[in-house]
Every structure is written in C-alpha cells, then in structure tokens.
Amino acid sequence: MSILINKNTRLLVQGITGNEGLFHTRQMIAYGTNVVAGMTPGKGGEWVDEKIPVFDSVKLAVEATGVNCTVIFVPARFAADAMYEAADAGIPLIVCITEGVPVQDMMRVRNYLDQKKVRLIGPNCPGLLTPGESKVGIIPGDIAISGNVGCVSRSGTLTYEVLYALKLVGMGASTCVGIGGDPINGTNFIDVLEMFEHDPQTEKVVMIGEIGGTDEDKAAEYIASKMTKPVVSFIAGQTAPAGKRMGHAGAIIEGGAGTAAGKVKALEAAGVRVAKHPEEIPSLLK
Amino acid sequence: MKLHEYQSKQIFAKYGIPIPKGRVAATASEAKAIAEELGSRVVIKSQVLVGGRGKAGGVKLAKDPEEAEQLATQILAMEIKGLPVRKVLVDEAAAIESEIYFSITNDRAARKPVMIASAAGGMEIEEVAAKTPEKIIKLHIDPLLGLRDYQARDLAASIDLPRDYWKDFGKIAMGLWRVYTETDASLAEINPLVITKDKRMIALDGKMIIDDNAMFRHTDLAEMRDLDEEVPAETEARKYGLTYIKLDGNIGCMVNGAGLAMTTMDIVKLFGGEPANFLDIGGGAGADKVAAAMRIILSDVNVKAVLFNIFGGITRCDEVARGILAAMKEVKPKAPMVVRLVGTNAEEGRKLLADAKMITAETLADAAKKAVAAAKGK
Asked: Which long-range contacts (CB under 8 A, 24 or more apart) does B150-158 make?
C-alpha cells in the first residue's frame, strides 16, 4: 500500500507538449508511471513519442482514456484555468507543479476545489513518488527506494536530500508527497499526516517544513492528539531574516509569526524529534 | 513589491477613494511650489518603504510655502531606518475629527481575503493587535463571491462608525476591494482613514504590497518598482531569474532550491559560521545563470569563502560546474570555494572541477564544516 498514487494510477499530463511537460513525461514513463493521455489545446489528435494521445481538452482525455489523476506543467498564467478544467472534468487528484501562480488565483482555486471534493497537491511542488510503482511530477526516481517511511515536505531539493540520505542507509519511502512552497496550496501537512496514519505500509513519517505560515503548528496539534506513528521533522530557515521571502512564495516570517524556532518548539512539545540538519534524519528514525 | 504612499494613494483615487490634494516632490523648491499651489497648510511626508516614518521625524506640518521648503530640505536629507529619503509627498493638511484603520489582505490560514478595521486608527496595526486586540475587527470575504455591501455595513457597525458615514465607508470599502483584486495586492491598507471636521472621509495614508507572482499581468505596476530602495545585487539577481537575499555573514552560498538554500544557511550557522546570503539558482539552471549567480555572490566584499551545494534533479551538476568554471575565469575569485555536487551528472561535474583547485565535499555537514574552516582561513 501507499497513499495517493500506485500502480493503478492512470495519468494525464496537462501541458504535455511544452519543454518541461515533455521532458518529465518521458522521465515518468521511464520510471513506470502509466501515462495514458496528454492535453494541449489546439494539439488534439497528435501523439507524443507515438504512444501518448494528445487531446484538446481535459474532458475529452477523461472520456477517452479513463484518467484518474492529472499533473499540470503549464505556465503560471494558465495554471488556475488548468486546475479548474481538471476539477470540472471530474478528476479526483490534481498535481500542479507550476511555480509562480498568483496568490489570489490560488485563493479562488482552493475555495472552488473545496466545494468539489477534489484533492489538489501543490502548486509549486515536486509532486508525488511511490517508489517502484509510480511517479507523478519531477522527483528524480533513482534517489529513493521503497520502504516504510512516509515523507511529506514543502520543499523540492531538500526533500531529495532527505530521500537520498534515507536510501544511503537502506531506508525507503512508502510515498513521498511534495505539498509545495506557496502560501496557499491544495493539501496541507495535516491532510497527508492523516493519510499516512491510515496507510498500512507507512510505519514512520518524516515531515519537512520551513518558515512561514502556521501549517507546522497545526500539524503539531494533530500529531499530539491523533497520531500513533512516530514523526521526525526538520524545519528549514533558522537563519532566515524576518520580512524577506526566502525563494518560496510562502517562506516568509510576517509580523514575528512563522519562525523556525516557534515551529520547532511546537513540534517538540508534540513529541516530534526534530533534526538539527537533514542528514541527521535517518538516525532519528531508527 | 511594496508601493510608496504616493503611488498607493494614486491607485486609490482611480478607484474612487477620496485622498487629500497633493503631489510628490524630489527637491525642496518643488515642495515649495506645490505648497503654493495648494494654498493651505501642508504636510511634508517622506516617501520611504518602511513603517514608523512619523516617529522618525519624517512627517512634518508646514504653515506656509517657506516652511514647507525648509522642512522638505530637512526631510530630504534624512535617512529613515537606513533608507535615504529621495522624495517627499506634499499633501494639504486635514482637520481631523477621528481616525480609523482599514485594510484588505490575504489570510493565509483561512485561504481567503480578510478585511481588517479598527477604531484605533493612525497607530501601527501590529501595535494595536499587541496592546488591544479586542479593538481589531476581522471579516473574511469569499474570494469567489467578492465583497458584498452588507459586509461593509457590518464592518462599519462593528467599529462603531456613526450611521451617517456608513454610505461613504461602503463606497470606500468597495473601492478598496477593487484595488485589492484588480492589482493583485497582498495588502491594501488605509491608515488612517479619517473623518475630517467638515465631515468628509479621506484616505490620509496608504500602503500597498503587490504579489510578485502576479506581475505578469500588471506591467503598469511593475514600472512603479523603486529600484533605489533595493539592495543592488538583489535587483541584479532578479534580472537573471535568481533569488538572492543579502545577509550579514561571510560565507557565500549558491544552492538549487529554496528549501535547500535555507537549509544550507542553517547548517553553516550550526557549524559556527555565518551565511553571507540566500541564493537559489532555481531548477534546471544553465551555465550562464550560474556564472551570474557567482558574480553576484562575490560582489559582496564580506565574502571570505563560497559554498556550492547542488542536488541535481532537473538541474544537471555538469552544467553547474561549467557555469562555475566560466565565472571563475571572468571574476578570478580569491576566496576559497567548497563544492558539493550530488545527483544528476554529479560525477561529470566533479571531473570538470577537478583542476579548479576547489575543496570538495561529500555530505552537507562535511561541506558546511569545510566552508566554515575556509572562511576562518584554516
């Protein structure tokens, strides 16, 4: 078992004919992901690498191929529309890789999707990886092996760092979920922690947070009250100055709130072991 | 992107929010001319992108054009919280009856816009929140529905605004909502919104922050960016699509990915060093971008060592190595360099750098320790 994606995932790629979309479609197929369709308006009827049919709309792709998950690689200015289109076509799981989606777009998208009971991962995220089964997004497949550690993170390369550190000591992941670095996203720590708590394959969880917002604090409350599985964490941004956006749109200390020190304190109070640096995580999981 | 008071108020006026008569001046003689034109008592207000201008002496009342010129001379020579004053706003002075705080901003946790109002206007809202939180009223807006008239009335009532002003406040609230949505603001703030002795409601001061992610649809606003108020290296970095933030330490950092970049700073500190900067070269960075990043890091004279931490995924380590080599030829750095390459094409990258006299590291901890030692000249 795993969460969100597995061997039965039938994936659509929105923006499949763009540079990034095409590159990562090939990577996902090479990894073993079942990519069943692509979508680029105006390119319906074409084929990608002679095996993936391209459709003009998400609805047509869903009707023809039985898509149950979609990944979005379109530029930021089109991302909100791509998410609405996927939700309206009835796809239950949307993964948006795109970085730089305006915050007000995301407020509207999130409020709309909540009414539709659609799960969105991201935006501004590396996507999902269930090692050995399926990869949806851009996480390099060879840095992780299958195992019993559930990973959830707001970051991209920092997550790769952790997956790789686990692999070096023979530890693997059940599923890795990149929830993204934006201030408003589709899925939060709590949502993923709950899925891991109920997933039989997952025995331990690694949660990688950073400065900005209150998601880690809410996660700490959830862990203290609801979780039976051990959680190890790392919070990036101990040395980040206040009021500056540290690369991720959501990584900013505002009005004194959202500091790394505050999050570490909340997590430790909830019984979470917090690593001083990412390479310490494997030993804390043992 | 932060906007100046005068820019924010110009936008407010376009959306029907009343503002005082006035204009911006870059010299004392211009300030005098504006005061003459207004023909009334005026307020001379420093235009810098920080709060607390009043307390710092950057806002002064002048009774006539001569005094306006004199005060403008003083204020234009000031530095407020390290920022030199380059412009002053000359506004007609208002006779104030009462002051209100009113803003619309993003509520990240609620994932909705929120209106914030308080009868304790004129003070910094953080201060009001800390001392008298009960005086702050918040009301969320459904982003799909937009602001409704009844919500503006509810807000007016909840801060005990007299009924005579509900209609004016409603218009201002609707105007500010349009400002917020149509400019992709993350903050649109009027503080204070005043009621004058002659019973008018005016936005006396304004502050706006525009979502950088939305700049692609606001080219007119992008032109308002005040580059004088930025660290030049940060402006330079933006040109290349890099995110660079200058810090006070002496170990320059070049990393791919924001989370990993923060982590690299943190681990430098953990092992006794001080990071000189945050720098994210982003995903898939090619040699040109890497070279630009290196020039920017080395433009900081405090930098005593540079740490490269690259976890190759989309970014290829050999491309990064080529960028490093190209930049080294150009800038000929004296500072020692510590390099850690992991992931896609790391081996090729290491080979390329083998002759470049760089210190190499396997793990993140090892890289940080070596960079700290190198910065101390060990």
From this structure: B151/B115, B155/B115, B155/B117, B156/B117, B158/B117
For A234, nearest residue in chain B (alpha carbons): B263
Report the C-alpha gap between A217 and A228 in whole angstroms.
Answer: 18
Count: domains in chain B? 3
Contact B216 A76 (CB under 8 A): yes
- Picking from B51, B75, B93, the residue at the C-terminal end of a domain is B93
Type of residue numbered B245:
I
Instruction: Name which of A100, A140, A251 is nearest B313 (Cβ-Cβ).
Output: A140
pTM comes to 0.93
A239 → closest Cβ in B214, B269, B344? B269
The residue among B317, B298, B315 whose CA lies nearest residue B306 is: B298
Q: Tokens 């777009």 label which residue?
A: A105
Q: Indicate whether B300 and B284 sit together in one domain.
A: yes
Q: Is A238 helix (H, G, I), strand (E, B) or coil?
A: coil
- Whether the CB-CB separation of B228 and B27 falls below 8 Å is answered with no
Topology agreement, domain A11-121 and domain A139-285: yes
Tell me which chain B residue has its CA closest to the CA of residue A249: B213
Q: Which of B229, B255, B276 corresponds to the end of one domain?
A: B229
- Residue B279 and residue B299 in one domain: yes
Fold for A139-285, please state it: Rossmann fold (3.40.50)
To the nearest whole Å, the CA of B97 is away from the closest chain A CA by: 30
Which of A182, A221, A239 to mutate to probe the B interface, most B CBs <10 Å? Answer: A239
The H or E element spanning position B330 is: helix B317-331
Q: Which of A217, A228, A230, A206 is nearest to A264 (CA)?
A: A217
Beta bridge partners of B188: B104, B208
Q: How many residue pairs from chains A and B have C-beta atoms closer than 8 A? A: 164
Residue B144 contacts A where some CB pair is shorter than 8 Å: yes
Q: pLDDT (tens digit, 0 to 9) for every residue of chain B, 378 residues total?
A: 999 999 999 999 999 999 999 999 999 999 999 999 999 999 999 999 988 888 899 999 999 999 999 999 999 999 998 889 999 999 999 999 999 999 999 999 999 999 999 998 877 777 888 888 888 999 999 999 999 999 999 999 999 999 999 999 999 999 999 999 999 999 999 999 999 999 999 999 999 999 999 999 999 998 898 888 778 888 889 889 899 999 999 999 999 999 999 999 999 999 999 999 999 988 767 778 888 999 999 999 999 999 999 988 777 888 888 888 888 888 788 889 999 999 878 888 888 888 888 898 989 999 999 999 999 987
Which residues 6+ apart lie within 8 Å of A94 measured at CB?
A69, A70, A72, A83, A86, A87, A113, A118, A119, A120, A121, A186
Q: What is the CATH number of domain A11-121?
A: 3.40.50.720
Q: How far apart are the first and last CA of chain A?
A: 21
Q: How far apart are CA B344 and CA B340, in angstroms?
A: 13
Separation of alpha carbons B322 and A225, rounded Å:
51
Domain of B30: which CATH number?
3.30.1490.20
Cβ-proximal residues to B82 (8 Å cutoff; 6+ apart), any chain: none
Nearest-by-Cβ selection for B143 from A104, A214, A279: A104
Q: Which residue has the tokens 């760092």?
A: A161
- CA distance to A177, B87, B133, per residue, from B130 (Å): 37, 32, 6
- Domain of residue B341: give its range: 230-375
Interface ipTM: 0.92
